[in-house]
Design brief:
The chain is an alpha+beta fold. The chain folds into 2 domains: 63 residues; 60 residues, no CATH class. The protein has 2 helices and 5 strands. Helix 1 packs across helix 2. The protein is rod-shaped. It starts with a strand and ends in a 7-residue tail after the last helix.
Length: 131
């Protein structure tokens, strides 16, 4: 399995770590050094154990996750959690308008829309199969 270590704190007994990876919590041995991986991605294996009728999931082995990270920019047509199309193009458009203002090409607030529309058209027209 893979995930980012969100926290690694001592258990109540102090004999293991409670390790939160993503949204799940696991146990880890004290000598596992998982406490040094907080905020970093890991690739790990787990094993479920039964102790006094309760199942505990232990991280049995792990290593740094060396797979490439997912792209930070959403792809065209993807939708956000609120159901609206993800505006992957917005940072590009914003930067183009800001540079046009800084260069003195935009002198009136009303000119910003024309520049924003032109930048939007430029970036969204790059979505063809040739790119």
């Amino acid at each position: 399995m893979k995930g980012i270590v969100r926290e690694a704190v001592l258990s109540q007994s102090g004999k293991s770590y409670q390790v939160k990876v993503g949204s799940e919590t696991y146990l880890g041995k004290l000598d596992s050094k998982l406490n040094e991986m907080v905020g970093r991605p890991i690739d790990f294996l787990t094993k479920a154990t039964d102790y006094k009728g309760k199942v505990y999931n232990w991280i049995t082995s792990w290593g740094p996750d060396t797979s490439p990270p997912p792209p930070l920019v959403a792809q065209p047509g993807q939708f956000s959690s609120n159901g609206r199309e993800n505006r992957y193009w917005l940072p590009f458009v914003s930067n183009q308008v800001a540079h046009a203002i800084a260069a003195g090409n935009i002198k009136q607030p009303g000119e910003m829309m024309a520049w924003a529309k032109a930048a939007y058209t430029a970036v969204t027209n790059l979505e063809g199969p040739e790119f």
